[in-house]
Here is the input.
Amino acid sequence: MLCQAICQAAEVAGHLWQKGWAERNGGNLTLNITEYADGDMRSLPALEPPRPIGTELPYLKGCYFYCKGTNRRMRDLARHPMENGAIIRITEDAAHYEIIADAVVLPTSELPAHLSVHNYLIGKGSSYKASLHTHPTELVAMSHHRPFLEKDVLTQLLWSMIPETRAFCPRGLGIVPYMLPGSIELAETTIRTLDEGYDVVLWEKHGVFAIGENITEAFDMVDTLVKSAQIYQDARSMGFEPEGMSGLQMRQLADAFGLPK
Ligand code: 2HA
Ligand code: ZN
Here is the structure.
């Protein structure tokens, strides 16, 4: 089962590269794999002394995560997930992690955001186990336009481009103002925005952060939003403002499929 989760991460990493959302070492992903931590995994020694997370995350005490390595490429992780990622264990003080397998590959630079989000998810009793950060070109481009950064403007616009986006990204797209990549501030603002009810948030002029039961689900929501962004941009480049589905059409869709909001 652990292999399956990591294979799924490798498959998604390949999609990210193919989509053009993962230039160089861009993006990162983490999986909460604590449910697969059997006696053998729990008895693995740390490969080096514990490192600070930079914050204390009480719900993560003794948890296990698969993390993409910092400076590692998604296209490499797709083929060699254990050489471009690592399994870490959170120590008893809930403020440090130790790398236990397979090799000393330092986790992603966005570790504070990823682990803080996992801590938040466990704290609220969520069954979500995966978090994904990537750089989808069309969505990042749209984040450079101030009017799109008003609350739920992009959600409504992207939902209205094609019924699938309303149906398969039913919680919309939250907005996080530009903040230093890798910072605790970015992690905390991401959590506050997810807590408003979103499963995907847009990091202004940087990328998106998505959560899901598994990494494929997180990827699919981003993919659906990007499809809408592409339809919008194609229409604009053909010289017209797309009409979009009406409010009534979207409400009918929400009623028919029992969608939230
Ligand atoms: O991991 O995308 O935000 C590289 C990044 C940092
Ligand atoms: Zn990034």
Observations:
- The radius of gyration is 19 Å.
- The first helix runs from residue 2 to 19.
- The mean pLDDT is 97.
